[in-house]
Amino acid sequence: MDRKLKVGIIGLGLGRHHLAGYASNDQVEIIGVADLDDNRLHEAQSEYEIPETCHAYEDLLTLGPDLVSVALPNFLHAPATVAALDAGVHVLCEKPMAVSVAEAQKMVDAAKRNDRYLMIALNNRFRAESQILKKLIDQGELGEIYYAKTGWLRRRGIPGAGGWFTTKAKSGGGPLIDLGVHMIDLTRWLMGNPKPVTVQGSVYSKFAHTVEDGHYDVEDLAVGFIRLEGGATLIAEASWATNVPQESSYVKLMGTKGGAEITGDKLTVFTEMHDELVDITPIFHGHSWGDCIASEIAHLVTCIQEGKEPMSTGEQGLEMMKILEGIYQSAEQGSTIEIG
To answer: Is CB count within 10 Å lower at the N or C end of the chain?
Structure first.
């Protein structure tokens, strides 16, 4: 493609970060944004000189974009994405992909049916420490990774308490689908995206009483035990509220030649050199959250222009939804869930 891609943003909550990412990319032209909030529309149009604003995403799609970001509440991801794909538009969809496996499957089917790109926005893959560790793993520095632990724990931090975030029909769940999705995806990606085989899970809702107004029917802590193809094991935990010292996120990988740990934005590799155990901490320039979003946008734009497969595909997003839904089902049924 020898012209700039025409892009639009659907949803200007989290989507404002997508907007900034597109604005920094000289390979795209922002032609419109959609949101129900007039103030958000006015601010975006004023700051970025956007030609068109819409309340409905259907109207945005009539403007002829090549690519749109879908950054709406979770329950709207599938309908907006399918509508865009059926209109012949490529899609970058925010995480979680959908609120169910069935909806995620519809999105993948629509991408295939229309021969369009569907990339899931899992920006932790684009963190500097993640990229460095991925290179080391692909070069064989850790050997076979057979065990991993990951998590994102908040001491107190229930988002949008009482609104759609804490309403399962609209969010799909609590911290597992909000925070855990990031960490489980990052860990599996570092491991080479092994397919999930079975999952077991437990969920807890111990802080619902702290939400005085609105609806709350999701968990505030979730844990999962995931068996992966090839025999590897992954343990994951995620919380919005639990009694830990402070908020933290981590990935721990254990391989036959070495191990690695990402804690916050610090990367450490544990290995041997000259028959001695050593810890290696690479020096790198970190990236802000906005930088990571800009990087994933630039990646997708390049893939579309050059006809390459994006790093985070709809099919990978579907596998993630199977893991998340399986953990919830396991917790409800008290049994191991097989994933096909």
So the answer is: C
Q: How far is CA 103 from CA 2, 106, 308, 315, 329, in A?
A: 34, 5, 25, 12, 16
Q: Which domain holds residue 194?
A: 125-288+320-338
Threshold 0.90, pTM exceeds:
yes
Helix, coil or strand: residue 70: strand
Residues 176 and 270 in one domain: yes
d(CA 225, CA 227): 7
Mean pLDDT for 1-14 is 92
Please say whether the beta carbons of 199 and 225 come within 8 A.
Answer: yes
- How many domains, the chain? 2
DSSP 281: -
d(CA 236, CA 133): 19
What pLDDT sits at residue 243? 97
Within 8 A by CB and 6+ apart from 191, the residues are: 137, 145, 148, 228, 232, 234, 253
* Whole-angstrom distance, CA of residue 68 vs CA of residue 92: 6
* pLDDT tens for each residue of 156-169: 999 998 999 999 99
